[in-house]
Amino acid sequence: MIEDLKNILDFISLKETYLFANTPRYLYKNFRNNQSILILSEKFVSSELKKLFYKLIKQPRNIDVRICLYSLVIALSFKQDYNTRLFIKNLNKFKVEWFKELSEIIISSFIMDQNEKIDMKFRMKDYFDDKSKGSTNSHITVNA
To answer: What is the reported pLDDT for 61?
Structure first.
């Protein structure tokens, strides 16, 4: 399985980045800018990437396994579906160095999807239209 991932990834460059990384943000930025991570993300749907992750997380964590785990997590950062967000949010439960920080970095970089934007508009409209708040807020317009 690691060999399959190595065939997709620019493993030498990722290994170099991993070895030089002194912060999780550096690792995230440089892995995410590596074209092979984007290719990995496009080649597999979220559930397949997570399935590979769950297989790898059980293996002894040598340097190659760590690079593959980071690659899978950062490939998932290109996905925007709810289940992937939930997976990323719960990364810290795996007790791998920098997973907690990577989770925070990735979650903060996610763009709200259209459903979240619509939901936010309706919640704001309900709030501002609620007369019990003591103001009619007639100066605020929310396009829902």
So the answer is: 87
Nearest to 34 by CA among 3, 56, 12, 59: 12
Q: Which parts of the chain sit beneath pLDDT 70?
A: 112-144
Structure tokens, 119:
């939901």
What tokens were used for 75? 């490939």
Question: Residue 128's domain spans which residues?
Answer: 112-144
Residue 96 and residue 126 in one domain? no
Question: What does the block give as tokens for 50?
Answer: 């997570």
pLDDT in tens, 70-96: 999 999 999 989 999 999 999 999 989
The reply to whether 46 and 96 lie within a common domain is yes
Same domain? For 47 and 15 the reply is: yes
Instruction: Report the predicted TM-score, pTM, of the whole model to 2 decimal places.
Output: 0.76
